[in-house]
C-alpha cells in the first residue's frame, strides 16, 4: 500500500469487556493524515491515548495502554485488525476502560472496517523495515524478528491438552489472508483455570459466546472450533495487535515460539529503543530496492 489511509465514515459497536465484564461502546471515526490510531475516553472528556508502545501499561493476559493514569484495556484484537487491514489513522471513541470482546475474535472488527470503507490520503505511507536480527528469550520461550521485504509471521504454541498440543503457522500477512485465516480465530481458555483467573480479577465477562473453552478432554462450545489450529491462529492475531503499537507497518519476519503479550512488548521496546535496528522507508523506495536486487 503506497499511501496512508483512514476510514470513510463513522462506525460503531457495543458489547462487554472480557476481563472487566462492564458494558462498553466504541465509535470509530476518520482521522487526519499522520494522526495514527488514537483512543478517546468519552466518559473522561475525550481524554486521548494514542496506540503507541510508549503507553504500554499492563501485559498480563491482555495488552493495556495508560496515559496519566487513564487506562484502555484489551486493545490487541482491535489494533490487530486495524493494522492488518491497512488502516493508519482513526479515532476510537470508547466510553469505558476496556475494548469490547464481541465474539472473541477479530472478525466483527473486520466487518466494521468493511462497513466504514477505506479512504486513501496523498501522503506516502512510511514503513519500519528491520535491518538486522533481534531476539528476546525467557525460560524456553522466544520471539525474534529477521530482515524481510514483507511482513511475515511464524507462530508456534504448545499446550498440554489433547485438542491443542503443538501448533504452528507461517504466512505473509496481507489484508485478504488475515481476514480469511486469522481474524475469525477466537480467544481461548481452559475450564480448570477459570476460578484462578477470576480470583485474579480477570475474565469476568467471559462466556462461550465470546471465547473458546476447553475442558480436560474436549471443547465446550456447542459449535466446536472454527479451525483445527484456532488457538495458534488467535495467538498470531494477538501478536499482530501488539506489534501494531510500533505505530508504523512493519517489514520483517517475526518468529514467535510460545511467546505472549509481555514478550511481544519487550520485542517492540527493544526495536524502538535502538534506531540502528531499523530504517523508515516508503513503498516506492522499497519497490525500487527490490527491483534493483532482482536485476543484479
In short:
24% of the residues lie in helices and 34% in strands. It has 296 residues and is α+β, with helices and mostly antiparallel strands. It has two domains: 3-124, 2-Layer Sandwich (Ribosomal Protein S5, domain 2), CATH 3.30.230.20; 127-295, lpxc deacetylase, domain 1, CATH 3.30.1700.
Structure overview:
This protein is of the alpha+beta class. The protein contains seven helices and 19 strands. The radius of gyration is 19 Å and the shape is globular. The chain starts with a strand and ends with a helix. The model has no long low-confidence stretch (mean pLDDT 96).
Total number of helices: 7
What is the third-level CATH name, the topology of the largest domain? Answer: lpxc deacetylase, domain 1
What is the count of structural domains? 2
Number of strands: 19
Distance between the amino and carboxyl termini: 25 Å
CATH class bucket of the largest domain: Alpha Beta
Which structural class matches the secondary elements? alpha+beta
Feature tags:
7 helices, 19 strands, 2 domains, lpxc deacetylase, domain 1, five-stranded mixed beta sheet, 296 residues, Ribosomal Protein S5, domain 2, alpha+beta
Strands, helices and their partners?
Blueprint: E1 3-7, E2 11-16, E3 23-30, E4 37-41, E5 47-50, E6 56-58, E7 64-67, E8 70-72, H1 76-84, E9 90-94, H2 107-116, E10 118-124, E11 126-130, E12 134-138, E13 141-146, E14 151-159, E15 165-172, H3 175-182, E16 188-190, H4 194-199, E17 212-214, H5 230-243, E18 250-257, H6 261-272, E19 278-282, H7 283-295
Parallel strand pairs: 4-9, 11-18, 14-18, 16-17
Antiparallel strand pairs: 1-10, 2-3, 3-9, 4-5, 6-7, 7-8, 11-19, 12-13, 13-18, 14-15
Helix pairs in contact: 1-2, 1-5, 5-6
Amino acid at each position: 500500500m503506497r499511501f496512508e489511509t483512514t476510514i470513510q465514515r463513522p462506525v460503531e459497536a457495543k458489547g462487554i469487556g472480557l476481563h472487566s465484564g462492564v458494558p462498553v461502546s466504541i465509535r470509530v471515526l476518520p482521522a487526519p493524515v499522520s494522526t495514527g490510531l488514537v483512543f478517546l475516553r468519552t466518559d473522561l472528556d475525550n481524554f486521548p491515548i494514542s496506540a503507541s508502545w510508549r503507553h504500554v501499561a499492563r501485559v498480563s493476559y491482555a495488552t493495556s495502554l495508560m496515559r496519566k493514569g487513564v487506562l484502555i484495556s484489551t486493545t490487541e484484537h482491535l489494533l490487530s485488525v486495524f493494522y492488518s487491514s491497512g488502516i493508519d489513522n482513526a479515532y476510537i471513541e470508547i466510553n469505558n476502560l476496556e475494548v469490547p470482546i464481541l465474539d472473541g475474535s477479530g472478525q466483527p472488527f473486520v466487518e466494521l472496517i468493511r462497513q466504514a470503507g477505506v479512504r486513501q490520503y496523498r501522503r506516502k505511507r512510511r514503513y519500519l523495515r528491520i535491518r538486522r536480527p533481534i531476539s528476546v528469550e525467557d525460560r524456553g520461550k522466544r520471539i525474534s524478528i529477521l530482515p524481510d521485504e514483507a511482513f511475515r509471521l511464524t507462530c508456534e504454541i504448545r499446550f498440554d491438552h489433547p485438542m491443542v498440543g503443538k501448533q504452528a503457522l507461517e504466512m505473509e500477512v496481507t489484508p485478504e489472508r488475515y481476514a480469511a485465516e486469522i481474524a475469525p480465530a477466537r480467544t481461548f481458555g481452559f475450564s480448570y483455570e477459570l476460578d484462578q483467573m477470576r480470583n485474579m480479577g480477570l475474565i469476568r465477562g467471559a462466556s462461550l459466546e465470546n471465547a473458546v473453552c476447553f475442558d480436560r478432554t474436549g471443547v465446550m462450545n456447542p459449535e466446536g472450533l472454527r479451525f483445527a489450529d484456532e488457538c495458534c491462529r488467535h495467538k498470531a492475531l494477538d501478536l499482530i495487535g501488539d506489534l501494531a503499537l510500533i505505530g508504523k507497518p512493519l517489514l520483517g519476519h517475526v518468529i514467535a515460539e510460545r511467546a505472549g503479550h509481555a514478550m511481544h512488548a519487550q520485542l517492540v521496546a527493544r526495536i524502538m529503543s535502538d534506531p540502528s535496528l531499523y530504517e523508515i522507508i516508503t513503498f516506492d523506495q522499497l519497490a525500487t530496492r527490490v527491483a534493483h536486487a532482482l536485476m543484479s
